[in-house]
Amino acid sequence: MHKQIALTGNDAGAEALKDVNPDVAAVFPITPQTELMHKFSSFAHDGVVETELIHVESEHSAQSACFGSAAAGARTITATSSQGLMLMAEICVLTASTRLPVVMPVVNRAISAPINIHCDHSDSMFCRDSGWIQLYCEDTQEVYDTVIQAFRIAEHPDVLLPVMVCLDGFIISHTMEGLEVIGPEATQKFVGPYDPAFSLLNTVDPISIGPLHLAEYYFECRRQMIEAMDNARRVIVEVGQEYGELTGRTYGHLERYRLDDAEVAIVAIGSTCGTAKVAADKMRENGIKAGVLRLRTFRPFPGEEIAEALCGVGAVAVMDRSVSYGLRGGPVFSEIRSFAGADAPPMISYIYGIGGRDVYTRDLEAIFEDLARIGRSGDCGEVYRYLGLRE
Amino acid sequence: MAYEMTEIRWHGRGGQGAKTAAQLVAQVAMGEGKCAQGFPEYGPERMGAPIRGFTRISDEKIRVHCPIERPDVVVVLDETLTSMPAVTEAADDATIFVVNTTRSPGEMAAKLGAAGVVYCVDATRISIDELGRPMPNTPMVGALIRATGCISMDAVKRDVEKKFLKKFGERVAEGNIRAIQRAFEEVQSS
Q1: Are residues A133 and A334 in contact, defined by beta-carbon separation less than 8 angstroms?
Q2: Which chain B positions have a beta carbon within 8 Å of A360's beta carbon?
Q3: How far apart are CA B90 and CA B177, in angstroms?
Q4: Residue B42 belongs to what domain range?
Q5: Nearest residue on chain A to B65, judged by CA atoms?
Q6: ipTM for this prediction
Q7: Under an 8 A CB cutoff, do A178 and B42 touch?
Q8: How many domains does chain B have?
Q9: What are the tens digits of pLDDT across the range A266-312?
Q10: Which CATH number fits domain A3-247: 3.40.50.300, 3.40.50.970, 3.30.110.40, 3.30.70.100?
Q11: What is the rounded distance in angstroms from the CA atom of residue A19 to the CA atom of residue A12?
């Protein structure tokens, strides 16, 4: 019923945006995101979409254009990576706290200095407290599917928060894989028309956007964002379910891979999860019951579900592709551990893949083997570890 | 591997089309109902610098997302790269080499120290004849098909015609198809 095509991750993101046909796109290039908006711009140029492109002079301007466009009531997109996200960060927090449902693919790349164009998650993790919902993709199929779902999540009246759809730079953005697409008709039927409750251009019933809130109301604004993010927990699952009914591909906060009877498990986000699944399969051939827990949603953080999913596993390694300086272990590890109860399994923190350091199946097999040893002996050894670091 | 997969590593110089070839073969395989991945060495591409590309073809969904460590096939688009250790890295006696060279398969096998079968074809000559410039990537796809049968000749010709005709016109599309066919016929093995 659905068409199978070969696309890179960047092309898959552009294809999904094409099928959605948003009103406005702010466009600015940065490696490795450039091809995504390049492809989308071709669709706009060729009249395949009716989107109005705004060519801006920086990412700060890109997100500012998104702010204005979304405040005017237009369905709005942009995309970026690394330093681009750093530069737009100031406006990203405005977009979120003004409750403007912008959708933005973030092609994950290390942040400077030293300059590095390869994948890690430092850029999006830097924005983890910006009020944006963050969804991480494992492969190109998920990039396509998640970009489409992002509009429904962001624009849901109980949410109204912007969404970052994160995909690993080069590893996903530049890898050509096969994926199923549902085309513009089914996509637009799924996403539905955008009917914002407020618009800056509504002169009949005019409103102010971005006013001054001092001590009297600012706190309450923040409380509303907290509630919106909590509502997103439910909405992400509902939208993922409905998308599954349409396509056969159901999404939630987590993916449990061979986890039911697992004695050892790796927890990760992004493309590494696929490699970890292959490693888990190999381990099982060798008699070690290995599983993988993939986090798709990082904000809102599905802490309780993670704790429940890991309950009964003998030993767990949590993989972080970014660093939180001064806090031992990365953000994924620290946050998972904050939900771990007294009966939680022993957990090891691995910082890995920083600046694009490759991660092979054998690296993850070695982690599984080590976890099996920990499970047998009960002795964790060093909890805070680095994978593939030259020391 | 848990399931049967063909892993191809491409070596070329920036501008020779190794990335395009890696993705072309993946795309054609997908068109034939297989699962496939095609990706370049992650990073900036510079004209003339040694680069790698990767193709995986499998009957089942490919989940792994890392460079190929132990290739089944190594395709070399530029003879000057054959003295680099990267070309023979992790090769064993089952690794098939497909090399763009004027040398004989025997000479090339000795130069590479290859234990497996070595296929040689003068893809540069073929592309100059058929395209008017040295663009060894498409003829090397023809040689690869002869060496491995990983995709079908008909499918690759259809794909090249469709893609190149639209983008570059009839002359380039036809030239590439002739180049693929000639390399398929002219390639010699050890």
Answers
A1: no
A2: 66-67, 69
A3: 32
A4: 5-189
A5: A275
A6: 0.91
A7: no
A8: 1
A9: 999 999 999 999 999 999 999 999 999 999 999 999 999 999 999 99
A10: 3.40.50.970
A11: 10
